[in-house]
Design goal:
The chain has helices spanning 32-40, 44-51, 89-105, 125-139, 172-197, 205-213, 225-230, 234-240, 296-313, 361-376, 389-395, 407-420, 454-463, 499-507, and strands spanning 3-8, 18-23, 62-66, 75-80, 110-113, 161-166, 219-223, 248-254, 265-270, 272-276, 321-331, 342-345, 351-354, 380-385, 399-404, 423-426, 444-445, 471-476, 482-483, 493-494. The chain is elongated, with a radius of gyration of 24 Å. 33% of the residues lie in helices and 20% in strands. Helix 4 (125-139) packs parallel to helix 5 (172-197) and helix 10 (361-376) runs parallel beside helix 13. The chain is an alpha/beta fold and 511 residues long. Bound molecules: ligand BES and zinc ion (2 copies). One zinc ion binds next to loops.
Length: 511
């Protein structure tokens, strides 16, 4: 596990396996800390920059300079910060992520780094440290759980220590605090990635229940099949019954300490289909293996709740109550599976005709949302779900779709997403889409839209389960939950999308 610390001193003279310095795009005279390092290297960096060969300081580009004994560290890693005029929090994250990946290639165990953004970048030190820790942990992420090292492989090396080098003693406490918060955030993102990356035979509903029960500082209540039956959750159960795996509805809760006045209750609901085969409306084989990621919404909520517990224990309690609800089950075509045409009654009392068993997410969410309202009467409901392939068609992997009943909540979440480096693009919920939810035999049909505004129709379905004018936002994360492009802070695969937006929103962090 990577540990962060602050070391008081100068960059020159630091002892580590690699030293990270930075530079804005187009600069050819390293200044400040990087300048001193350049002097110590007999101007090797300045000469390379002046030659204008491979490194120009573009954001996230890196260049390695061996020190040949001129410094205690064997390597200096120069990372580009991009154009100074465009510098922002996302650039700090990206630079940190790119630099740590370069250090990984150098097989470094200990790394020392300059605090990106805190100098000419104009960021205050605490904020820069928070972003650096986030970016470092996100960039260093690898999913190696099942990779047996092969004979002839170099032994695996993990980055154990990252030390921020700071000359100004007055800033050390602020940097340490920022690192603490950023590390909790970054670790939460990594945990969500681990769960989403892991296979469906490992991350079963039962395994996720156990993970939830293991969170510290968070209370956890579990409803099993018999409880779901007692509560009348016919929609949720209709999905679960195609599989032998027992379903669970996990309810996590964290309340502010007595000394903090609670302003509101927020319910987070995450779709937790640990494998989506489609059920009897079976998905085609190509790409089915990816449906292990259909619990990415639940993973984001679980990881966020874990982080809230850790932040509270670190002395940073929230001023609101947060409840997390995870409906967990498999969608399988077993002997008990729902058949197309089946009609079920949801906990709210509404009846649903299931014309497509692959539109299962909205069924489990409908009951989880009803249960959330009945148990905690939240002021706000935010659900996250890998709900529709249509959302990938609309927005690709770049952004999640956001829809809901309350514009201020949507705007606030979009702003938090922006600060967190996660894009949320709003889609409209036009009344015309209601047509697609009409059934001849029941109150609602689960998949009526057929190629037309599938993402919004799914959201409209959920809206039928929001009581009155309660503030509700729905995040369809089907696209960004899993990425095929390799970005420094988001290596390809599970992204942990949603964790940062939720934490930034709840804590009100600006980038
Ligand atoms: N889990 C899928 C959506 C999905 C697809 C997530 C690809 C991530 C990547 C969801 O349960 C589903 O199958 N939705 C159907 C709905 C349709 C039957 C109305 C879809 O998108 O095709
Ligand atoms: Zn499905
Ligand atoms: Zn699904």
């Amino acid at each position: 596990m990577t540990e962060f610390s602050v070391v008081r001193g100068d960059l020159v003279g630091i002892d580590a396996d690699a030293l990270i310095v930075n530079l804005f795009e187009g600069v050819i005279e390293p200044a400040g800390g990087a300048g001193a390092v350049d002097q110590a290297l007999n101007r090797a960096i300045g000469k390379e920059l002046a030659a204008g060969r491979v490194f120009h300081g573009k954001l996230g580009d890196t260049c390695v300079f061996p020190t040949y004994g001129a410094l205690k560290t064997p390597y200096v890693v120069m990372v580009g910060l991009g154009k100074q005029a465009q510098f922002n929090g996302a650039a700090i994250r990206r630079a940190a992520a790119a630099a740590i990946r370069a250090c990984q290639k150098l097989r470094a165990r200990s790394v020392a780094t300059i605090l990106h953004g805190a100098g000419a970048g104009g960021f205050d030190a605490g904020r820069a440290a928070r972003l650096l820790a986030e970016g470092t942990l996100m960039g260093a992420y690898q999913f190696l759980r099942y990779k047996t090292p092969q004979r002839g492989d170099l032994p695996r090396v993990e980055i154990e220590r990252v030390a921020i080098v700071e000359r100004d003693a007055a800033k050390i406490a602020e940097i340490e605090a920022g690192l603490g918060v950023g590390a909790i955030t970054g670790r939460a993102v990594r945990r969500a990635r681990d769960w989403v990356s892991d296979s469906a035979n490992a991350i079963t509903p039962d395994a996720m229940r156990q993970l939830a029960e293991g969170l510290s500082g968070v209370s956890c209540q579990v409803l099993s099949r018999a409880d779901l039956e007692k509560s009348g959750m016919g929609a949720f159960l209709s999905v679960a019954k195609g599989s032998d795996a027992p379903p669970y509805l996990v309810h996590l809760s964290i309340t502010p300490p007595a000394s903090v006045k609670s302003t509101k209750t927020v319910a987070l609901v995450g779709k937790g289909i640990t494998f989506d085969s489609g059920g009897l409306s079976l998905k085609p084989p190509a790409g089915q293996e990816l449906m292990k990621m259909d619990m990415a919404g639940a993973a984001a909520v679980l990881a966020s709740m874990g982080a809230l517990g850790e932040l509270a224990q670190a002395g940073l309690p929230l001023n609101c109550r947060v409840d997390g609800f995870l409906p967990l089950c498999e969608n399988m075509p077993g002997p008990g599976a729902s058949k197309p045409g089946d009609i079920v009654r949801a906990m709210s009392g509404k009846t649903i005709e299931i014309n497509n068993t692959d539109a299962e997410g909205r069924l489990i969410l409908a009951d989880a949302i009803t249960y959330a309202q009945k148990t905690v009467s939240p002021d706000e409901i935010i659900d996250l779900a890998t709900l529709t392939g249509a959302c990938i068609t609309a927005l690709g992997e770049a952004a999640a779709g956001i829809m809901g009943s309350n514009q201020p909540l949507i705007d606030a979440l979009r702003a938090s997403g922006e600060a967190a480096g996660e894009k949320l693009w709003q889609l409209p919920l036009y009344e015309e889409y209601e047509e697609a939810l009409k059934s001849d035999v029941a109150d609602l049909i689960n998949a009526g839209s057929k190629g037309k505004a599938g993402t919004a129709c799914a959201a409209m379905f959920l809206k039928h389960f929001i009581e009155g004018d309660r503030a509700w936002a729905h995040l369809d994360i089907a696209g960004p939950a899993w990425t095929s492009a390799d970005r420094p802070e988001t290596p390809k695969g599970a992204s942990g999308f949603g964790v940062r937006t939720l934490l930034y929103y709840l804590y009100g962090w600006q980038s």
